[in-house]
Amino acid sequence: MGGDGRRRKDDDVRVVILEARRQVVAGLNYKLTLALFDGVSDSSSCLGGMRDVTIYKPLPHAGTGLRVSSWGMPMGCDDVEALMEEIAEYEEEEEEEEEEEEAEEEEENASRVEGGMQEEREEVEPDAR
What we know:
This protein is of the alpha+beta class. It has one helix and five strands.
């Protein structure tokens, strides 16, 4: 930042996409929720955010690129941090569910292998008559 407290062109701002949705129109609309941070490190300070920024991507034959069709609504840092906490909790829950599913799958595979080994033993062992 300059001595007058204003941001200079060369100040780094880190943008984090917090939410994203897609809508098919005559092209695609992407609706994003963005968090803005001062600097590029993970410990950088929050500058605020923008909710429902709409980026339009026209169909390929249009020959034009992406454009921002709406800047949405500004968000305060409290809202940004609350949303980031929600996302972190959701990701933790998803990770736990994946781990549980993997453990269940491993148990099922172990049971199948054990069952197959039992069947092989039954086929190989002679009758005790």
